[in-house]
Structures are given as C-alpha cells and as structure tokens.
Amino acid sequence: MKRLMTVFLCLLLALLILASCTKPDQLATSGDQDGSGDKPSSDQNKEQPTSDFEPSTGVKPTAAKESPEASMTPDIPENGDYIPDYAYAQTLYQELRANDGVLLARNEYWQPVFSGEGDNVNKMNKAFSGRLAGVSLADFEWLPESYDNREGYTYEEAQSGRVGGYTETWEESWRDNRYISFAAYGDWDGLGAHGGFSMSGLTFDAMTGERLSIADVLSVPVEMITDVLYDEYISYQSGVGDGSNADMARGNAWDGYEEYYIDSVKSQCGADAVFWLASDGVNIFFDQYTFFYAAGASWLVIPYSRFDLIRAPFAKRPS
Predict the structure, then answer these.
(1) Which domains does the chain carry?
(2) Amino acid 318: pLDDT
(3) CA-CA distance, 16 to 227, in Å (whole number)?
C-alpha cells in the first residue's frame, strides 16, 4: 500500500513539473485552436496610444487637403480689414453709329473689380457685372432711322456732337474694416429734348461678399420699413428747399394726383429701396419721376446717430 501511494505521488509531481514548463504563447495558441482564445489579452484591453506616424512605415502622414469650400473662406487679415483690393475698370463699351458714320449712342460701364480669390470676391464682382445685363444698345435702336429721317432733335443734336447712350460709373462712398458701400451715377440720353439720370447703390459685407439690403442696415422690422421711411422722407424733405416735395408726398397736390404721389413715394421706401452709405449717413434715392420730371430727383438721409432706426455696427454717436 505504501508503495502504491509513493508511485501515485511521483506521477502527480511529474505532471505538475510538466505543466510549469509550458510557454504562455503555446497555451494561447492551443486556446485559439479549440475556441477558448476569444477573450482578448490584458494588453488588448488597454487604450491604444495615438501617434502622428504611420505604424507600418514610420512616416508622418501628410495633412489632409482643405476642402474647396474651406479654401474659399477668407482668412482673417492681420490688419483686421476684410475688404479686398480693387481697381476701377471699364467692363462695357458699345457704339451705335448712323450710316454716314456719325456716332449716335455710346454705352459705357465703369465698375470696381476686386482682386483675389474666395467666395466673397466672386460674389461682389458678380453683383456689379450682373447689372450689365440691363445695358443694351437696343434701347437706342430707333436713333439711326430718326437720324436719317431728320426727325425731332436727333439729326441736329448728333451733328452738333451730342452723343446719346447710357453711362454708369461706380464710386466708393463709404467703408469700415468689414463693410463697403458704392454709389453709381447713371446718365441716359436719347438725343431728345433732355436726358435723364439715375442713382444706384450696392453695399456689401466684405467678409462674406453678401450684398446688404436696407433691412440689413435698419433696425426697423421689415413689415414697417415702408411706413417708417415714408414718414422720414416727409420730415427730411420738409427741411430741404421750399418743402414742396414733402407737400406732394403728403398728397397736397393737384386734383387727381394726391394718391399717385403718395404711392409713388411709398413704392421707393420698401425693403428694395435704392440706398448707399456715405459720410453723412444712409442715403436713400427717389428718382426723377417720383412726382414729375421738373421736380427732379430727391433724397432721404438718415444720420448714423439715429440709434432708433439704424442697427449696429452702422449706428454711431457723433464725434
């Protein structure tokens, strides 16, 4: 009996020695083979450290290319001025001549052309060039026939050197480090008894290139802009000249024109009002035919000190 116990103990000792000599990686391999190795090791449970280098090559990867949209966003300038450089250029020139070569009409368009890249530059340039669609010699196509037939003033005026057509010239009227405004003088002449003129305005947020409307400058709710500007026009015109424009705007006119004049003024007081920014304030333009030709064009100027009407950053206290 003692001999059997001794043999049994020897065999048990041999098994223990054999087990202690087996390598850990051999156990892991055998576990994978029989399905018992699915549990991750303690090293696998640890969060893997991030690296700037590709583990397979040891080379730092190149930075991802910026998307086209991101590259079109203007960088913040060092001097804090978002307005890109520009130069004035003649972007349209058209001529209309009579059969004998006499110049009858000439269309010219002068605009600022912004330099650089980015959506802001493209949008501002497009706002100016887009207006060219409305400039055409077709507006004066009747002049050659009128000239040949000696009709009206056409022949005499053209022979004297007077040239018809349309010229629009833009000039900067105001700026700060982010916003810029331009005003244009448009001169129209059909070689008749008299010519005519118009004014236009374009104001931009140069950081984005977006064109601003009068609603972006005024702090007045959009639905109230027409009535507010109508009242402001009457008040302003009451102190200009003899105040006759204010009287007509109130409806104090010849019989049958009272409502016409009121509607004519209000039609130019809405959210699409023609305006530009200048040193004296927000300028709003009312054309020559607001009342009648001889009355001429008129303006409404709202000073920047009118905090009740003008929103920041345009509202400023007088210095």
Answers:
(1) 78-212 (3.30.565.40), 214-319 (3.90.640)
(2) 72
(3) 101
Each residue of 23-54: pLDDT tens digit?
444 433 333 434 444 433 444 443 433 333 33
Q: To which residue do tokens 């990686």 refer?
A: 25
In this prediction the pTM is 0.74
Burial of 143 (0-12, 13-18, 19+ CB in 10 A): buried
Annotate 71-92 with b (16+ C-beta within 10 A) or e (fewer).
Answer: eeebeeeeeeebbbebeeeeeb
Distance CA 42, CA 22 (A): 20
DSSP SS3 for 158:
helix
Beta-strand runs (E) in the chain:
86-97, 103-114, 165-175, 179-189, 196-205, 210-211, 275-278, 281-286, 298-302
Are 103 and 97 in contact, with CB atoms under 8 Å apart? yes
- Rounded mean pLDDT of 226-246? 92
In angstroms, the CA 316 to CA 296 distance is: 31
User: Hey, what are 72's tokens?
Assistant: 């079109």
- From residue 191, alpha-carbon distances to 107, 117, 155 in Å are 14, 42, 9
In terms of pLDDT, which residue wins out, 254 or 305?
305
Count CB-CB contacts under 10 A for residue 296: 15
Q: Averaged over 279-308, what is the pLDDT?
A: 94
